[in-house]
Task: structure prediction
Amino acid sequence: MNYNILFIIGIVVVVIAGVIAMPAIKNLRHVFRVPEGWTGLVYHHGLYVRRDNAGRHVLWGIGWTMSLIDLRRTSLLVAGQEVLTADSVGLKLSLLVTYQVTEPVKAAHETQNWLSDLYNATQLALRAVVSGVAVEALLNQRLEIGAQLLARVQPEAAKIGINVLAIEAKDVMFPADLKRAFADVLKAKQEGQAALERARGESASLRNLANAARVLEGNPALMNLRLMQSLASAQNSGSTLVLGMPGGFVPLKQTKSAAAGETKETGGAEA
Result:
């Protein structure tokens, strides 16, 4: 009987000890989940230990922590940067920077805020590139400006574990007076082009008229044919056309049948 009581007491003690120890055991077990496309930097009491890939990770002990870093490709908008061109024209440019974290350990440990460093490096590169380009060249070389910026920013970003994939000039904003000046220049170019086309058309028309005049001068009978065409057109349209006989009108030659008919009519009249 005494043994049974002691056994029951022992079980109760073990259960109570287990209940008391559960929070301590729970604190010793750490479960970390790393999403797909991310990586986890594992630290023990603040010291870097290793890098874990996507998945579920269980660590036992005290002082374990994990910092997650996104490894997917993403973009950074550098908006409304005021810069001066080589001809001292103030502009506002917006840039779109496409980048990817390739060395998360370096990005986390080499700088306090790698995103801010990337932003500042892009700003400085933009000022350096635009200050050496005139405003008109800047408009014509937007793609080349992006390539120059990429060449400047990539080495700086690589120092902190970032791979810059592309930099594009998203928006170029001019002062209001400069916009009006460009609009006036464009309007003047378009009007000049239109005037040139009209002059070309008039020259071509005059050449055609001159050629027609030379042809008519060498062949006066063509004027008669043209006159007959005009009369036929007026008859078909039902309009009344009043014409004077042109001074250079050339009589058409009579055919043999027409001449014979006239002779008969003359003979009949004499009888």
